[in-house]
Design goal:
The protein has 121 residues and is an all-alpha fold. The protein is built from 7 helices and no strands. The longest helix has 21 residues, at 53-73.
């Protein structure tokens, strides 16, 4: 329940820096994947404001998918490489292109779960 409260209040903008440091992904990639506008982030950061609840939800979704991929592939680098490449189990679409929506993120995490259990179809 606490996560829902945090998301509804808006995560601090610094969470994007934390993701950047944890993954070594570029900030531009993080913003692209989460669909967050760079100028809006800069304005919120300078005003000491948080991300919107919608932006916070997208960040949490991305972290959830990335975490599942890291668990499966064993490293952040391997997980990020997999997320960027077209995957047959997702109709030859890169997982990163699907996680902007909850339905797409569920498809990606479902596929990771199938891979973990050796079910490829």
């Amino acid at each position: 329940m606490r996560l829902i409260e945090f998301l509804n209040q808006g995560l601090p903008v610094s969470v994007l820096d934390n993701i950047h440091e944890w993954t070594a992904m570029s900030k531009a990639d993080i913003l692209r994947v989460t669909g967050i506008n760079e100028r809006n982030v800069a304005r919120r950061k300078s005003a000491g404001r948080t991300l919107t609840p919608d932006e916070s939800e997208r960040v949490a979704r991305f972290v959830r998918v990335l975490d599942a991929a890291v668990d499966y592939f064993g490293s952040k680098e391997e997980a990020w490489n997999w997320l960027q490449a077209p995957v047959r189990g997702l109709g030859n679409v890169a997982p990163v292109d699907l996680i902007a929506t909850e339905t797409g993120a569920l498809e990606v995490t479902d596929l990771i779960g199938r891979l973990e259990h050796g079910v490829f179809a």
